[in-house]
Recover the amino acids of this structure.
């Protein structure tokens, strides 16, 4: 090794020492902006194999995730729910900022797999089918909760979770709580605000809160006087024994 | 009376000499028919867009963007490594290097011209790939919009059209493409540095690929080792040396997150791009330093 080579290596070492604090600070900024959030641990290597893991580590996470996503789609056509979950776990670990993957993984588990479990012809005992159905709901819920943890800056998955609590778990209190979180985002759709109140209306002990919220929306103008809003306003007026002179007129079409 | 030739003063640095070498390098690389890979790229993304036609439009656009930007990363990296690794050995083999350096052309200008030629090739390649990608994405978007207009009820149509537009192109992809370019330029600078002391171009290519892999893995490995209580001091010294010499390429691996819609703030983009440019500059200068003392 000649003198120049030694100087070149020393120069690279000095450059390394200068750049490392800058890179460490930049890495923190990247993480704060939700970059590099993928969890590339050894359990992922078992799921995607050595080559897939190497490709993911080499900066081709998105491609590996897509390959697995397409594979999961093939498994869906074969209704292999367990294998699909393995793929979904890997896909979401590789691309934790992709809302589509969290949302669809949850939907497949909570809506498709759960129905398949409930109608499973190989399981004669209904209690076990119902139990399996609920387990798939929980899996769907788990994807959304983990998705929210990775994407706390977006309303979408909160909305999906609220929908899941409403449609599957029939847990209106939790649905209201989650829709309320979604509604706090400035870009959340306007219906999210109404959904909070519709769910509160069905949450025991929160009827008054729901009624006041719905009445406030009602008073903002014609645009808010939608059939579902009118329906819930009518139900709550009766339930809360609102005095006749304070009652809002509910047209027959929306009258419960 | 005969006119005496006037001797023009030789400049220590001449942009015209650099640009002449750069344009020749680019021409040589183009003559190697490297752009045939464009055909493969086009087939790949058009194929992937048809392959996913039974998916929802969000999934289709997601896969199309992932495949396109992933393929851009792979192709530009391969192009950077292969084109740069062959620059010096080919010129030595053809004796072009001796012809050029026998003239009053400093080695710095020669190396800079060669490097700029490769950067120009990478720029053309990524521009062409971006153009093909945009055309395919636009076509798919128009297709999805037409289908929505045909099948979606009128009251839900505006929301559906907005969803389609939001899922297809977004301006965040542009900084992502710039970062892919910078990363490939960094790989070219690194390969150039390796080729200044390497004995063969195969060695340069292998070393460059190995450094690329280590550059991506070493931050994760370092973290894992440093978090472990059983790591010896010797291992820690070794890790520090690797971290000091090998570039941390994860700093420039933002595309996987950008492609799913993660917006990169302008200041963060500038800082990241600045790091990439600094790497390129330092590796080039160190490469020149080794090359300037090389016995040819």
């Amino acid at each position: 090794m000649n003198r120049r080579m030694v100087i070149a290596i020393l120069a690279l070492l000095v450059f390394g020492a200068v750049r490392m604090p800058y890179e460490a600070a930049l890495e923190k900024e990247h993480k704060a902006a939700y970059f590099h959030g993928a969890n590339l641990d050894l359990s992922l290597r078992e799921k995607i194999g050595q080559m897939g893991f190497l490709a993911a580590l080499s900066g081709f996470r998105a491609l590996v995730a897509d390959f697995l996503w397409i594979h999961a789609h093939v498994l869906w056509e074969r209704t292999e729910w367990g294998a699909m979950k393995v793929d979904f776990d890997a896909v979401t670990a590789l691309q934790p900022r992709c809302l589509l993957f969290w949302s669809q993984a949850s939907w497949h588990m909570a809506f498709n797999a759960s129905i398949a479990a409930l109608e499973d012809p190989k399981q004669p005992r209904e209690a076990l089918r119902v139990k399996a159905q609920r387990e798939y709901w929980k899996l769907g819920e788990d994807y959304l909760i983990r998705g929210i943890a990775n994407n706390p800056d977006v309303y979408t998955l909160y909305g999906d979770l609220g929908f899941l609590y409403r449609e599957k778990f029939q847990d209106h209190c939790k649905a209201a709580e989650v829709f309320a979180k979604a509604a706090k985002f400035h870009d959340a759709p306007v219906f999210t605000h109404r959904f909070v109140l519709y769910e509160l209306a069905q949450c025991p002990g929160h009827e008054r809160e729901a009624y006041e919220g719905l009445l406030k929306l009602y008073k903002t103008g014609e645009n808010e006087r939608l059939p579902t809003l009118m329906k819930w306003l009518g139900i709550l007026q009766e339930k809360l024994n609102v005095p006749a002179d304070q009652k809002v007129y509910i047209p027959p079409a929306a009258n419960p | 009376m005969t006119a005496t030739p006037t001797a023009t003063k030789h400049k220590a640095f001449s942009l015209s000499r650099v640009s002449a070498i750069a344009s020749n390098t680019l021409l040589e690389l183009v003559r190697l028919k490297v752009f045939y890979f464009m055909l493969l790229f086009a087939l790949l993304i058009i194929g992937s867009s048809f392959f996913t036609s039974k998916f929802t439009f969000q999934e289709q656009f997601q896969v199309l963007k992932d495949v396109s930007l992933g393929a851009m990363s792979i192709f530009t990296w391969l192009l950077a490594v292969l084109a740069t690794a062959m620059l010096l050995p080919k010129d030595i083999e053809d004796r072009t290097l001796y012809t050029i350096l026998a003239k009053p052309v400093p080695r710095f200008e020669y190396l800079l011209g060669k490097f700029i030629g490769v950067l120009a090739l990478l720029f053309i390649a990524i521009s062409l790939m971006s153009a093909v990608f945009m055309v395919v994405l636009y076509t798919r978007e128009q297709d999805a919009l037409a289908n929505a207009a045909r099948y979606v009820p009128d009251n839900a149509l505006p929301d559906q059209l907005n969803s389609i537009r939001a899922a297809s192109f977004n301006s965040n992809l542009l900084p992502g493409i710039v970062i892919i370019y910078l990363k490939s330029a960094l790989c070219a600078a690194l390969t150039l540095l390796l080729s200044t002391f390497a004995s063969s171009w195969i060695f340069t290519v292998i070393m460059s690929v190995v450094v690329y892999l280590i550059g991506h893995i070493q931050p994760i490995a370092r973290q894992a080792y440093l978090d472990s209580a059983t790591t010896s001091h010797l291992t820690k010294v070794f890790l520090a040396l690797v971290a000091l010499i090998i570039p941390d390429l994860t700093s420039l691996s933002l595309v996987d997150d950008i492609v799913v819609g993660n917006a990169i703030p302008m200041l963060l983009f500038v800082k990241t791009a600045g790091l990439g440019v600094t790497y390129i500059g330092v590796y080039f200068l160190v490469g020149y330093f080794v090359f300037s003392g090389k016995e040819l």
